[in-house]
Design goal:
By secondary structure, this protein is mainly alpha-helical. It has 8 helices and no strands. It has one domain. One of its GO terms (cellular component) is plasma membrane.
Length: 193
Amino acid sequence: MIFMFGKLFLRIFGLFLFVAVIFTLAIFIGNYVAESDTAKNLVQSYGYLGILVVAIIGGFNVLVPIPAAIFTPVFLASDLPITGIIITLAIGTTIADVLGYVIGRWGHHSSEIRTYPFFDKIEDIRVRYHPFIIPLIFLYASLAPYPNEVIVIPLAFLGMRLRVMILPLFLGNLIYNAILVLGISGITELLKF
């Protein structure tokens, strides 16, 4: 029994260490790029549209989930206001979530998996726990360091409506990006000393 908890602790610690190393490397790379005149000119010339494209790509990248907020030093180096950066990142991430939703709905309409008893059990869970799904979406989008498609695609596959999911997704993305952008900008300021 103790061995099982030790193994679980090592897995959680390993995951935490992995995320911390990726986060630290991304901050250093972001700082390096922020000092680049080419990167500054690129962000200044494309502005919020460039941030939006980066957010869509970063928000939909399920294989290597690197949030677009990691590039905060680059965005800040172009003298764009921090609130505009946060809102643009949240909009881009929400657009990526909508693309994930479309994939899930397409799978729902084209799949034969609905004939299996497993689908009936999942559908029963969705119906029974429906009031908890919206808070779950909000909490996952605002706090989980994983792509939102992990929950958006299955919920879309199960027939959850986009109009029900869009507001908790956007608000969760807004909080998540605000935490990241403000945290990264604070760490960047500390590293300048």
